[in-house]
Input
Amino acid sequence: MKIKVLYEDSNILAIDKPSGILVHPDNHGKDKTILDLFIKKYPKLEIVHRLDRETSGVMLLAKNNKTHECLKQQFMNREVKKTYHAIVSGSVKNDRGVVNKPIGRSPRDFRRYLSGRGARGEMREAITEYKVLKRFTITTPKPLLNKEGRNSSRPAKGEWPKAEGVNKFTYLEVKPKTGRTHQIRVHMKYLNHPIVCDSLYNPDGICPKGIIRMALHAKSIEFENLKGEIVKVESILPKEFKKFI
Output
């Protein structure tokens, strides 16, 4: 797999991560990761921050330990500016908003995190700003239900059931001010507007036609390089986002 390099200097690499590839090895260790693809050319490469497997977009990598520590400190001090684009279920009421809700663990699923009532364990501060870019009302297929009344599967691309319904979606610009695991996904779920095609936080939701992966994209990141220069790196929108909007 060839991955596009968006920015590079003697210390830092910024790549355009595709949806569907892991950053770190999982417990199975079978799938190729971002590190696997770059470690031969950059043997001292270190991961600075994470993107979930299904999230695409800008990702920073450090070519040495000194740079890793420098960038990690910027993340810890909340000096790195991150902007994401997301498509969520439903029509978000307010044009702008801030979700300031700590995140803990879900009591029902060890893979999930949770804001609000029911969250367990250590509650970590989490702040997410959002802005509505566009609202949509779209005729979409109704979900395929199993006998228990739950969505049994998502149709493959081009294989939509005949029954249709009218559904609303919102296209958002999202700026996380903290860096918690699954933060944007959890906060959108808290607002009752989960990200479309998110199998973990929106398993029974409708996927708009043409969207076959979680609709979350890291659009840009702004940081300071080791020369003290402010660098902003941007990723173009995935083609499925462009078609939708």
In short: The chain has a mean pLDDT of 90. The two ends are 28 Å apart (CA to CA). Residues 65-76 form the longest helix (12 residues). Residues 81-214 form a domain with the Pseudouridine synthase fold (CATH 3.30.2350.10).
